[in-house]
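I'd like us to work through together how a protein chain folds, taking it slowly. To get us started, please write out a protein record for me. Label the sequence line and the structure token line clearly, so we can match residues to local backbone shapes. Once you have written the record down, we can walk along the chain together.
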Amino acid sequence: MRELARWIDSATPPDRDRAVDALRALAILGVVLGHWLVTALVADSGTVHPASPLQYRPQLAPISCVFQTLVVFFLVGGQVGAKSYASARARGQTYSRWLGARTGRLFRPVAAVLVVWTVAAGAMLASGAGFETVYALVKLVLSPLWFLLVFAALTAATPLVARLHPLWPLAVVLHVDLIRFGLDGTSRYEWLGWINVAAGWLVPYCLGAAWARGALRIRTSGWTLLLVGAATTSALVLWAGYPASMVGVPGTGISNLNPPTLAAVTFGLAQCGAALLLLGPLRRVLRRPAAWAGVALVNLSAMTVFLWHQTAMIAVTAVGLLADTALPGLHTVPAGSGWVFARLAWLPVFAVALMVCWAAFHTYEHTYEQGKRGRTTVVRERRPARTTEVRNA
């Protein structure tokens, strides 16, 4: 492993900002752990339905903030997308070719997920599984794909939004929420909230683009975003009636995430500030070959991990149903603190199942669109990968 770490370290371009890759890896892993901790599949009377410990223990809501890290992914996406587009223009590359290269790695692995779950859903229905159970499982797997659609749309709009100040989409979110929640207390304007799907995620994306063009003073901007964002979010939760949970909770009237609310966006700004402040420490840590190798390997399979982590949890839960009794933390009602500790014990099993999924499907993420190479690798034939291969990864 030490030898592999040295190979990866020596093959990495010297101008690559390793801290940016670390932020992306932390964002993906945060989402995975968050889903595994706040999603339960309860077996009841021959059916399986999703539930959340936050329904039964709302005091755990602040913990959800730790694992709601998609904002950091959009921040990094804006920074990388803006730099990539500027570099493509300098090389004379066309917009369509640049966009195809940026979005190809996002959607190639999705096809594998859709095919596998189409076959699996058909097989479950044919074997007598209830439609409610099949629908719940398929929805659990496919619902995270909304993020890819939004991210792809913002990537496509990079030439238009790369110089847009983040305060403009933030103002849109503010006014949408004022109309939704502040006019007459009715829900007839609820549909306006879907404007925030674009505006809300555009805030961190534009912030990342500003970072790319050097418009941010990293430490000053980091502390400002962290403190102002945290204070504003606290005020919105304490006095404006916004939920404390930054993830959706079944049965609640308002979700901070679906669609994004002002509280979710201000909390995201605090996360962006924390991410900027972490850049320096991360760069120092990632000088170590072992630390950088871990980050590089996660980034090589980021989409595979994201797309298959729910399938891994479902697979473990399905195998657990073969037992004669309901297994705590796996398919029991997440009502007590005992469930939380039991779920923590299942996380390594979920991780093993995810590794099996990775072994089966990671090649779809590494296939080049042009078909010139079979896959992108960090180490090939016991030699360091070519610089262009690590750069593309």
Remarks:
- Confidence is low (pLDDT under 50) at residues 368-393.
- The chain has one domain: 2-392.
- The longest strand covers residues 40-44.
